[in-house]
């Protein structure tokens, strides 16, 4: 999804800041997207990089497609530096995320559904993907949408089920909820 955003930004004639965050092992590597070299910054530069970029690019907006475990730390960093951002990753502690943004007064768009997404919520004892989700993915593929089964987000944690899906606590031990979201290139 990050590459799709870079392509859209480039097509719109906007500037792409040639920096991305990654692990310390990836630090210094470059990725080529839209003919642009993007340098990966490791975790040791997490604090200094956004501040220096914001000085160089005062109209900077970060578009973040990360892993769910990094959502809150990344948002906290953007708010600390004062950089507006779009959080396109689901997961993390959403209440804490909203509070971090609200307390900082930094502009942010927090979207749990950007692009294509399949989530299913079942009781914690269900550990595999449902036939229903597999059938929907099959339909997506027939529509020409590239989607792998490992992209399905399985939600088994009762706290996340309550926060992300709205499953009442009394039903977390036996329920099924499937959510499918597909956004076309023209945002319809």
UniProtKB/TrEMBL annotation:
Residues 168-188 are annotated as: Disordered. The keyword NADP applies. GO terms for biological process: diaminopimelate biosynthetic process; lysine biosynthetic process via diaminopimelate. Coiled coil: none annotated. GO terms for molecular function: 4-hydroxy-tetrahydrodipicolinate reductase. SUPFAM superfamilies: NAD(P)-binding Rossmann-fold domains (SSF51735). Transmembrane segments: none annotated. The keyword Chaperone does not apply. InterPro entries: DapB_N (IPR000846), DHDPR_bac (IPR023940), NAD(P)-bd_dom_sf (IPR036291). Residues 1-114 form the Dihydrodipicolinate reductase N-terminal domain. This is Dihydrodipicolinate reductase. The lineage of its organism: Eukaryota, Viridiplantae, Streptophyta, Embryophyta, Tracheophyta.
